[in-house]
């Protein structure tokens, strides 16, 4: 009886049910412990490689989405054109909304372009006007501040509204000039530049302290300070 029982157990160990074999069709388990009864080994299962590829794709998609989510919806742009009016720098402001719209404007004399003596004397009416054709050269110094979507849209509509008004006040070389428009727009964005800020260099330093980025005037790429 003992011999027969041992033989039965040995036969049961050698013959495994099919449903106990490896689930992957690319791996066939031996039918018994004896090497001469083992089936040929197939190539490794590609499911591991497929899993790694899928994981890599998901990670890349996640990184791309994260970068897209962090990208600002728009920018408040302040530009300075050196020696636009004799020794004076001209200031231009705008709202950029990538993939949607851009609106640039400046505060200028209402009428013919002023001569230098007229600028120094002041007293003429100024208006805010849109710049339809705005080519830039390397002499421009361009700074931009990031905005969220609602703020960018609101500021663009504000600037458009100012461009339709009949007057932006009488020109004064110290207190109401092209940089005044930049200060107005910055205050609308709750950035509050100081009232004493008048010179171009001072404005540039203040913009950098408030987190503005200096960018290329031609292609918009970041520039070293």
Question: Could you give a quick summary of the protein structure above?
Answer:
The protein has helices at 2-14, 47-70, 116-121, 149-163, 178-188, 200-209; strands spanning 74-85, 88-97, 101-109, 126-130, 141-147, 213-215.
Task: Provide a descriptive summary of the structure in words.
- With 225 residues, this protein is an alpha+beta fold.
- It has helices at 2-14, 47-70, 116-121, 149-163, 178-188, 200-209; strands at residues 74-85, 88-97, 101-109, 126-130, 141-147, 213-215.
- It folds into 2 domains: 2-70, no CATH class; 74-215, no CATH class.
- It contains 6 helices and 6 strands.
- A 6-stranded antiparallel β-sheet has the order 4-3-2-1-5-6.
- The longest helix has 24 residues, at 47-70.
- The chain is elongated, with a radius of gyration of 36 Å.
- The relative contact order is 0.12.
- Residues 18-32 and 65-69 have low confidence and may be disordered.
């Amino acid at each position: 009886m003992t011999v027969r029982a041992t033989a039965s157990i040995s036969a049961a160990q050698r013959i495994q049910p099919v449903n106990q074999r490896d689930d992957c069709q690319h791996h066939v388990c031996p039918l018994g412990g004896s090497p001469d009864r083992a089936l040929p080994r197939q190539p490794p299962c590609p499911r591991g490689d497929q899993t790694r590829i899928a994981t890599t794709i998901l990670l890349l998609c996640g990184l791309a989405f994260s970068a897209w989510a962090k990208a600002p919806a728009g920018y408040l742009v302040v530009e300075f054109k050196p020696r636009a009016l004799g020794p004076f720098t001209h200031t231009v402001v705008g709202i950029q909304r990538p993939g949607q719209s851009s609106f640039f404007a400046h505060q200028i004399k209402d009428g013919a372009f002023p001569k230098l003596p007229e600028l120094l004397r002041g007293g003429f009416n100024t208006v805010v006007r849109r710049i339809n054709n705005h080519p830039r050269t390397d002499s421009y110094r361009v700074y931009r501040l990031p905005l969220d979507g609602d703020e960018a849209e609101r500021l663009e509509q504000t600037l458009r509204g100012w461009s339709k008004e009949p007057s932006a006040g009488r020109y004064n070389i110290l207190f109401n000039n092209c940089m005044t428009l930049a200060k107005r727009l910055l205050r609308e964005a709750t950035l509050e530049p100081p009232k004493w800020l008048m010179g171009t260099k001072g404005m540039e330093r203040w913009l950098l302290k408030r987190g503005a980025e200096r960018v290329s005037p031609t292609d918009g790429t970041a520039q070293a300070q």
